[in-house]
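Hello,

Our lab assistant flagged a job as stuck in the queue for most of the afternoon. It eventually completed. Since we weren't sure the result was trustworthy after the delay, we are filing this so someone can double-check. Below is the sequence as submitted and the structure that was eventually returned. Let us know if re-running is recommended.
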Amino acid sequence: MQHKYAVDAINRTLQDVLCRETPFGGITVLFGGDFRQMLPVIPHGSRQQVVAASIRRSTLWNNVEIHHLYENMRLEQSPEMQEFANWLLDIGAGNGLDESETIAIPQRMICPDFSVDTLIEEVYPGIQHGEKDDRYFLDRNILCCTNDSVMDLNEELLKKFPGEEYVLLSTDSVELEDEAMNKYQPYLGEYLNLLMSSSLPLAHLKLKIGCPVMLLRNLDASKGLCNDTRLRVLAIRRRVLKCRIMSGDRRFSGKVVFIPRITLSPAAEDLPIPLRRRQFPI
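-- returned structure --
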């Protein structure tokens, strides 16, 4: 997933430090990855821009020697899992395409009536009944391609989740370069609330006691509060959330922590205006 410019920068730096013009100054460098999985992420980039950012388009690629790994040590060694792994590899290689250049998904992987309710029941059976332990949520995920799909699924799941629903509102503002202009709000608050970014929490954050959440920022690594840490909500207050860590290092799993509201700003490429949102970073 690394952009080719990052690799080129390391190459030039090592050449300068070691005073040698050979690739990486003569140091052996190991790259790990699979082009069938994920290419570099170029925000709002076209297919051509994404491919051009790949290391295969770097001038260093001619000096790369390719080695193949054939055994997945993390894969459960069973005939079913091996069959599934081979099927995924065929998809990545473009094998088994029909005349319309599509791949048929096995029937056992398809929900019977193609509905969201059936998908939720298959992945989260009995979510509306009783208290669930942390392992119940750690072993289950629904992956989506877009933030819109994520929000729709989260809303449907939260409706089925038992308990009272809380709506936590953010405070949104725009930080202008001219300090004198910051006394005025050039955008309506309702408009700022509608703005979304993958690095920002929702302006209208809906939660229930016991539901799982995920951190969006590194708050305190020494206490296990890192980006992508998964937690369970134990109590909801206006300025703080009481949560229990579910995932991560064993030293922190099960630890009770408090998540405050903080001020967050998206990357300049995500939004055209310098938005500042004060909200829980989940």
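-- support follow-up --
The delay was a queue issue, not a problem with the job. The result is valid. Helices lie at 4-18, 47-52, 79-93, 116-123, 134-138, 147-160, 189-194. The radius of gyration is 23 Å.
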